[in-house]
Amino acid sequence: MTDKKQPEQQDDLTELDNLKEPEEQPEPGDYDPGADDAAQQQLEAAADAAQQQAAASAMVTVSVIEAALSMMYPGVQIAPVQKQAIIQKLAPVLMKYNAGGMPPWMAAYKEELELAGAVGLAGFAVWQQIKAMKAKEVKEAAEGAADGKEPEPQAA
Description:
mainly alpha; single chain; 0% strand
């Protein structure tokens, strides 16, 4: 007989002692309905926020357009019903194209673009005022010439 050592046989009970208790957290492959619900709520909240942002952007856009029109053509206004219709139709378009926000490549220059827009609108308003003053002077000069009187010079 050969004198080979047999591997030690372990008792079945000691193998059971080595087993661990199941972990409380599910393994990555396990389905967790609570996580699905939380993810769904986050998606809905993000969608609601995007819709609100798009609606706000549409409202601001319509207001800026109306302000520009009223500067170019004094007295021109957009009716409230028409403004609401435009806002309702514009908001989904803004949602479709990046939720009414700026494209990522342009977002870095947001403040500069806002400044340029504000200065541009102010400059346009000043130009309109100068144009109106000159038109008034021409009109007064024409009326004065028709009356046979010299127009009085105005101090600058």
